[in-house]
Design goal:
Elements (H helix, E strand, L loop, with lengths): L1 H15 L6 H7 L129 E3 L17 E3 L17 E3 L17 E3 L17 E3 L11
Parallel strand pairs: 1-2, 2-3, 3-4, 4-5
Amino acid sequence: MWAKRVAAAVVGGLLALPVWATPAEDLIAGLRKECRGCDLTGVSFKKANLEGVDLTGAILTDASFHRANLRGAILDDVSAIGANFNLVDATKTSFKGADLSRTLMYGAQLSGADFSKANLTEARMQTARLTSAILVGAVLDRVVARDAVANNADFSGVSMLQTNLTGASLGRSLFDGATIAYAGFVNAEISRASFVGAKISVTDFYGSDLRRANVAGAVLTGNRFETAALTDVNLDEAQMRGNFMADGRLQE
């Protein structure tokens, strides 16, 4: 009988021990604002309020931030391969040096976000808002950003291989020193944008608005500008070969 009482007391004591919350649960509950380097693989933060959190260097592979609030958060150097940021509010969030390849960012609010030197290869960013975003030196290869709004954004030095920006709004944005190849800017609004020193090849600008764009010193080879608006484009010292111009004429 005594042994049974001792065993029951031990079991009861074990059951009374506190159950510690995981870092993810504490973040969602608002009990912590920092989880640098944490492994949050596959965690769902759907609709969570994560405003201002610091997740620098965290592993966010396949995590979901669908409709979450990430305003002003720090996600520098995170590994977020395949993560879901659809409809997230990441206004002025920092993603510097982050691996965001194959992420979903459909309809995301990314205005003022900093993606400097981030890897966005194969990201899906249809209708995303990137107004005044910073993407200096980022990799945007095979990104789909149809109908995105990225006016006044800084794409200086980016890599855009097979990037799809059909119907995007890119007015006054900077593409200085960018490498753009086999990309699509069909029917895009790119007026007053700057492509100074950029290398642009085999890219489709059909029907786009390039009025008053600055392509000084750029190298443009094999691109299509048919029906594009090219009024007052600055071509000072630009090198142009084999482009289909607005009137359908093929350059030699």
